[in-house]
Every structure is written in structure tokens, then in C-alpha cells.
């Protein structure tokens, strides 16, 4: 091995903690399904590294910047990691009260913006090797920003280049379409948002305890959602022949709508779009007819009634709605939907993590019915290391 000057150098040898069992399919027909079912375990591992369940406080490692002095946060990622950033913006602005900007890595550095001193740039990547995200990090460093990497690979280029890193502990993810890497990214970002909020005093001790408790319940709640696998496989039969599919959500449900649409596109090759439900009347409602399935993500949170209104507009125009909600939501609107999936009722803070699971399973079952290569979809690579 050589350093930047060309001199030969020695590097310590490290033994990987990865076992052969982690990179086998086990009894599952595809890596993607295995990785979906690993999510209760890996989210639990992630929480174990960042949250102390005894005192219900965040236990992040020491960071080389003061959260109380951050005047702006910039979240940057590509694809699924970008969707994780969109969810985190709601948390960081709503709970920690820090102005937060989200950008796609491939667009960020070409905007040529001047970044104000005192900002923190957070870079999200499963592999830690995404070329556009690495280039964006280099730009932010030149702008004098503190940098934080949220990655799944501790020895990755991004983890080594950033001022600090937080690991997602998802383990090897073989399927190209990201599943457990996404939910663990959300888990890390949720813990980070709570830690920043607690440090800045924008939530009190009771608020921190409530959010920590909600997070600790997530692994068991994911297990409950996985019990709906067969129901989602049945719903997939009504979607497999569709040419277009629309996903709708509000608040933190909107990025999950984007992620659901991306998953369906990636592995089934059906055109799908995720939309903010309130934007329906600004164009997409023209697409609605009896042949278009619409996946509505609607936990019974403060925005539920607004989403319900948009859903009823869709149904009035003949749209076939698959309604993802909890018991109170289904009691209100389940009868008018073509299909429903009842998810556990949870704190709205953690709902986006939970509502990710059914959109992953739905995309998986549609792809299986279409006979596509679920784990290695055409034209895609697991890590995009070129621009």
C-alpha cells in the first residue's frame, strides 16, 4: 500500500465481524425478503448502540462539534438515502428547531452556494462510497462546515473523510434495492434529532423520555407489521398489471411515499410516483382513473384529516386506494378503500420507520409476480461509485 506521496506504508489488519450466515439467503427465496425480515433485529442493534433504555436518554458517541452552536444543518444523500434525509428534516426542524436543508448529492455542489459558518453537513450513504456524496462532502469541507457521515460501513471512504460518523449497524445488504439500510438510517437520524433537541433544550426531559420510549418499541412493532406479509402479497395481485401507481402521504409520510414508489420502480419496472397528498389538485389528479392503484400512507397523526380528504377526492374519481393506516384511521375510512392494511398505532415520531415496511413488502411481491430479478434489477448497481 502507498500513501499520497507514493511511499510504501503499513496498515493494520482488521478481522471483519461479518459471518458467512449474514451473507447467505437462509430459507428465504431472495436476499431482499431476508433483509426485510431482518429489520426488527438490525433496528434493535442500531438502537442498542445509540440509546440507553435504562435512563431513556440518547447515548451518541462524543461528536467534535457543539449541537447547541449549530445554526443550520444540511442533509445530503442519493436515492433512498435522500428520502431518509427528507424524513429527518421534519424531525430536526420540528423537534430540535434547527433550520434544515435537504439536497440531492448530485445537485448540491453544482449550485455553487456559499455555506454560512457554523453549519453542519450530514452525509447519508449505505456504502459510504457513493461518488456524488463524497464529492458533496469535499465541497462542504472546503466551505468550512462540520461534517457527519451516517454509513453502514465503518471503514468506508465517507466515514474516514468526515469529522465524525454514526454507524447504522445494518449488516451486509446484498439486495440492490435498499431495505434494512433505510430503516436503520432513519433510526440513527431519529436518535440524532432527539440528542440535538435535548442538548438545545427544545424538548424537556419528559419529551426526550417519550420519544426514546417510542423508539424502543419499534423493533417489536415491525414484527407486527411483518405479520401482514400474506395480506400484502394478495394486494400485489391487484397491482401487478398496473401501468402506473401513485403513492400519497403528508408530513413524514410524504418521503415514505417517495420511497415506496422508488422501490416499485426499482424491482418491478412499473412506473410509480410518490406525491405530497396536498399536491394532488395541482396536476396529478388528472391521472386518476379506475385502472390506477393509489397507495395512501396515513397514520392517525395530526395531518390525518387532511390526507383523508385527499384520499376521498381520489376515490370520487374512480381511483383504487390501498389504505395503510392504524386502527383509528381504518375505523374512519377503511370501508371506502379497495384494500386496507392495519398497522400498529404508534407515536407519530416513529411512524415513518414503521410505514416503510409495507411499501417494501408490496414492491417485493409485485416484482415476484412479474418474474423480475428482485435482488439484481436491470441497469442498477448496489453502490454508485461514478458520477
Strand tally is 12
Distance between the termini: 26 Å
- Provide the β-strand percentage band: 15-25%
* Average residue-wise pLDDT: 93
Question: What is the chain-wise order of helices and strands?
Answer: HHEEEHEHEHEHEHHHHEHEEHEHEH
* Sheet with most strands: 5 strands, parallel
* Major sheet: arrangement of strands: 4-3-5-6-7
Q: C-alpha Rg, in Å?
A: 21 Å
Into which percent range does the helicity of residues fall? 40-55%
Low-confidence sequence ranges: none
Shape: globular
Q: Decide which structural class fits the backbone.
A: alpha/beta
Structural overview:
By secondary structure, this protein is α/β, with parallel strands linked by helices. It is about 40% helix and about 15% strand. It has helices spanning about 30-35, 40-50, 80-95, 105-110, 130-140, 155-160, 180-200, 205-215, 220-225, 230-240, 255-270, 305-315, 325-335, 350-370; strands at about 50, 55-60, 70-75, 100-105, 120-125, 145-150, 165, 245-250, 270-275, 295, 320-325, 340. It has a five-stranded parallel beta sheet, with helices on both faces. Strands 9-8-10-11-12 form a five-stranded parallel beta sheet, with helices on both faces. The longest helix has 21 residues, at about 180-200. It is globular. The chain starts with about 30 loop residues before the first helix and ends in a 17-residue tail after the last helix.
